[in-house]
Amino acid sequence: MATDLQERARRTSAAWTADPFYALVRTLIRFVLWPFFRVKASGQQNIPVGGPVILAPVHRSNLDSLLMSPLTKRPIRALAKESLFKILPLGWALASLGAFPVRRGGADRESMRVARELLKEDNMVLVFPEGTRHQGSQIAELFDGTAYLAAKSGAQVVPVGIAGTEEAMPSGSRFPRPKRVRVVVGAPLDPPEPKAPRSALAAWTEALTFSLQRVQDEAQEVNRSS
């Protein structure tokens, strides 16, 4: 059952003010943050122009989600801590940018439910398959959550490799440094069957791990050679 904050976020994201505000912030990221980090991206044509999509980047820094919006003209929806939405100006801004509140505690189940609802409305939803932030170029062990979400929603999953954000703003840093960042968008993976058994979900997750590692290796290589 949706909370009052979730209902408010839905109304805000559907209001006429949301699209102009999202476009403004996306433009600022593209023409201020991307030059600051000397971001170069490739493979944006792999992002589907319609239908439910899970944008699935690696996770090495708090910068990762922030730098995603210029990759596509489609708004990117994401999940955020419910407590952030209790501060009205911040809550309005987050909802206008496509964020949706979820409670911590029973967050895994609720996050899955909310993400499924957003995908069933043909949104693009940002999901980090590795979960929390990790260090290094090796993809961490993935659980079957992304596979389950894709199967239940019919969403394509787009792997994204990101090199340089860990150096630009490592865990514990307050301020970013102007390090070079490279982003590689891989080919989308079709979702598993809606009623796929656990073994099929595990096999699909292994394929996603391989795809993520491939685009991450490419991003690292491009960043080293630039």
CA-based gyration radius:
17 Å
Which CATH architecture would you pick?
3-Layer(aba) Sandwich
What is the helix tally? 8
Q: Output the helix-strand order.
A: HHEEHEHEHEHEHEH
Chart the SSEs and their pairings:
Blueprint: H1 4-14, H2 18-36, E1 40-42, E2 53-57, H3 63-66, E3 76-81, H4 88-96, E4 99-102, H5 107-120, E5 124-126, H6 145-153, E6 156-163, H7 165-168, E7 182-185, H8 198-225
Parallel strand pairs: 1-7, 2-5, 2-6, 3-4, 3-5
Antiparallel strand pairs: 6-7
Helix pairs in contact: 1-4, 5-6, 6-8
Structural features, described:
By secondary structure, the protein is an alpha/beta fold. The chain has a single domain (4-27, 38-225), classed as Glycerol-3-phosphate (1)-acyltransferase, CATH 3.40.1130. 43% of the residues lie in helices and 15% in strands. The protein has 8 helices and 7 strands; from the N terminus they run H-H-E-E-H-E-H-E-H-E-H-E-H-E-H. It has a 7-stranded mixed beta sheet. Helix 4 (88-96) links the parallel strand 3 and strand 4. The chain starts with a helix and ends with a helix. The model has no long low-confidence stretch (mean pLDDT 92).
Q: What distinguishing features does this structure have?
A:
8 helices; 15% strand; 43% helix; Glycerol-3-phosphate (1)-acyltransferase; 226 residues; 7-stranded mixed beta sheet
Concise synopsis of the structure shown:
Helix content is 43%, strand content 15%. The chain contains eight helices and seven strands; from the N terminus they run ααββαβαβαβαβαβα.
